């Protein structure tokens, strides 16, 4: 799949998630979520998230945010199941899709490093002023929360106005994620892509 086709699908509000179970689908599946889950990037929402994760932010004074420092390592780590019963949706062809987008400047990894070691990472697809956070992992306590807070600051500072996380979890809702209708999401996405 070429870059223009992939970006066109994202621009329609779709997101990829592979189904590696037998038999694997011939084409990479694309999905839609209704409601859609976003993390707000306005100053008040970011400040509220920082308050919610202040313990994590204060756990260390040497969190270092890097972008694309370990792109393939982050994708590989995000693709590992977190528990024995977890499935794997981030397959080799998902990795190839992210690599294609990365080469074109539309996929990035945001990473927290501690003492020269990768502590947490997430994958983001960026188009216009929209960022789609696709998957995340962490290796040490508090690193995931710290990474999320630092990433949102970086995205807002770079002019992003929409941060999509597709579907909610209990943890992301506790952190302040908001569920919106598919129609509202698509309107906000169009606005983020047009300006």
Q: Which terms would index this structure?
A:
195 residues; 7-stranded mixed sheet; globular; two-stranded antiparallel sheet; 8 helices; alpha+beta; single chain
Describe this protein's structure.
This protein is of the alpha+beta class and about 200 residues long. The chain has eight helices and nine strands. The strands form two sheets. It has a seven-stranded mixed sheet with strand order 4-5-6-7-8-3-9, sandwiched between helices. A two-stranded antiparallel ribbon has the order 1-2. Helix 6 links the parallel strand 7 and strand 8. It is globular, with a radius of gyration of 16 Å. The mean pLDDT is about 95.
In short:
Helix content is 40%, strand content 24%.
Assess the beta-strand content as a share of residues: 15-25%
> Radius of gyration in whole Å, from Cα?
16 Å
* Number of contiguous helices: 8
- Would you identify the regions where 5 or more consecutive residues have pLDDT less than 50? none
Distance between the termini: 26 Å
Classification by helices and strands: alpha+beta
Strand order of the largest sheet: 4-5-6-7-8-3-9
- Provide the residue-averaged pLDDT: 94
H/E element string? HEEEHHEHHEEEHEHEH
How would a textbook summarize the main sheet?
Answer: 7 strands, mixed
Find the count of extended strands (DSSP E, 2+ residues). Answer: 9
